[in-house]
Write a structure and sequence with these properties.
- This protein is about 50% helix and about 20% strand.
- The protein is α+β, with helices and mostly antiparallel strands and about 450 residues long.
- The chain folds into three domains: about 180 residues, Beta-Lactamase (2-Layer Sandwich); about 80 residues; about 170 residues, Histidine kinase-like ATPase, C-terminal domain (Heat Shock Protein 90, 2-Layer Sandwich).
- It has a six-stranded antiparallel β-sheet, with helices on both faces. Strands 8-10-11-13-12 form a five-stranded mixed β-sheet, covered by helices on one side.
- A hairpin with a 6-residue loop joins strand 12 and strand 13.
- Helix 5 runs antiparallel to helix 6.
- The chain is elongated and about 105 Å long.
- About 30% of the residues are buried.
- The N terminus and C terminus are likely disordered.
């Protein structure tokens, strides 16, 4: 911490020097305080600098800074020079109580020649000391709000003049904005650290739980297969295959739930890939071919108003996003129902719509379904991660994903991405692939 200015300079402020000379000394002192306070690297250094400089400025033995509580009901000691530092963060005065509390409430300075005979003074046991006699308190006001109170105290009896009070008010006004901005920054950093710690703890907990499930599931699967083989060799050959199939289906469901939870953790990790032009029609064709077994009970069709339909994005993220949406459609579309994918361009945006003729989504649920672990019904289908992950991926590519109304029934999810133009060489190569995709899908 920087050394306190010599007392002779501070003492000269209280002597009755000519007006111009006194004002120059005050301005020089305030400029020095502003420089030192502005260069403080930590909150503690800032607080110590303030009380040190204010003590020197007032030629006092004690300086204390109280800050307004965030609920606005009182002030709490934030820094002190001359009182017990153990009281910082502990000593508190409600608004209107004591000289400090009155200043915070009335927004006006108060002086006391002898606090021991002043009914307005409130003695805080373990903080205030009998040897200090006179006191001057001024409010710190920033943006028309009291953010704290600055107190100075002396051992000798001293009558604070109007010039003394005016100077301390000027000093308080200079410090108020610096203190509050640093306080807000400190609180914001603390909140970020807290949220980061909570997020890390959540991720670690989910990872531990899911990995703890993975090993026993593998063992259960192995034993089921052994039991199924043994049963087929015994007298229950007809039923054994059905038993084994049913048991393995339940294990598979648990496996999928574990994968979904782990996928949610991967989704929350920042994507470092650089967006590049890609043909949405081509990615849709490749993805639907890979996922064809999902639609063995429904009719899947695609329609694009222009080919190629080029947007900026990540091919890997888009494939995963489409996987979530198509898997969701296959779960809710009825047997022999329709699942349709439409693609079009409008202005600077490219759009994909994935629709199904399932039960649809009520209006009040169209945002909630994008929250993690939220499902529209109580069915065991999925872990409530897919749509959350899909929207996160869309936004990480500079786009968005929303649920829209579909008449007469069913669901419609619309993906919006920044439109782009494909480089000429890639466009020529893509043209052949598109013509092949059209032949396969149309």
């Amino acid at each position: 911490m920087s050394p306190v200015p010599a007392r002779s300079a501070a003492g000269s402020l209280r002597r009755q020097t000519p007006g111009v000379e006194r004002r120059l000394e005050e301005l020089e002192f305030l400029a020095e305080v502003s420089r030192l306070v502005g260069s403080a690297r930590t909150w503690d250094e800032l607080m110590n600098t303030i009380v040190d400089r204010a003590t020197a400025a007032a030629d006092a033995e004690v300086c204390s800074l109280y800050l307004m509580d965030r609920d606005g009901t009182g002030v709490t000691l934030a820094a002190t020079e001359g009182l017990d530092p153990e009281s910082i963060g502990v000593a508190r005065l409600p608004l209107g109580v004591g000289i400090t509390g009155r200043v915070a409430q009335a927004r006006k300075p108060i002086t006391s020649l002898n606090v021991h005979r002043d009914s307005r003074f409130h003695y805080i046991r373990g903080v205030d000391q009998p040897r200090y006699t006179s006191m001057c308190s001024v409010p710190l006001i920033w943006n028309d709000q009291v953010i704290g109170v600055l107190n100075v105290q002396t051992i000798r009896r001293r009558r604070f003049t109007k010039a003394d009070v005016s100077f301390l008010e000027t000093l308080a006004a200079l410090l108020a904005g610096i203190v509050e901005r640093n306080r807000l920054q400190r609180e914001a950093e603390a909140q970020v650290d807290s949220l980061r710690a909570i997020d890390e703890a959540r991720a670690n907990l989910v990872a531990v739980v899911t990995h703890a499930l993975r090993t026993p599931l593998a063992v259960v699967r192995a034993y089921i297969e052994l039991l199924g083989g043994a049963a087929r060799e015994a007298d229950h050959a007809g039923q054994a295959a059905e038993w084994e199939r049913s048991a393995l289906e339940q294990v598979e469901r648990l496996d999928q739930a574990v994968d979904s939870i782990l996928s949610s953790l991967r989704v929350l990790q920042p994507d470092t890939s650089v967006p590049a032009p890609l043909d949405l029609a081509e990615v849709v064709a490749e993805t639907t071919r890979e996922l064809a077994p999902l639609f063995r009970r429904q009719r899947l069709a695609t329609k694009f108003l222009e080919r190629p339909l080029v947007a900026l994005g990540s091919q890997e993220l888009l494939r995963r996003l489409l996987g979530y949406l198509l898997e969701n459609a296959s779960k809710y579309a009825p047997r022999d129902g329709a699942i349709d994918i439409y693609g079009w361009r409008k202005g600077e945006k490219a759009y994909l719509a994935i629709t199904d003729d399932g039960p649809g989504i009520p209006v009040e649920w169209r945002e909630r379904i994008f929250e993690p672990f939220v499902r529209l019904d109580d069915s065991p289908r999925g872990a409530g991660i897919g749509l959350f992950a899909a929207r996160h991926m869309a936004r990480s590519m500079g786009g968005d994903l929303r649920a829209e109304d579909r008449q007469p029934r069913g669901s419609q999810f619309v993906l919006e991405l920044p439109a782009a133009r494909m480089p000429a060489a890639e466009a020529e190569l893509s043209g052949g692939r598109v013509r092949k995709a059209v032949a396969l899908n149309d």
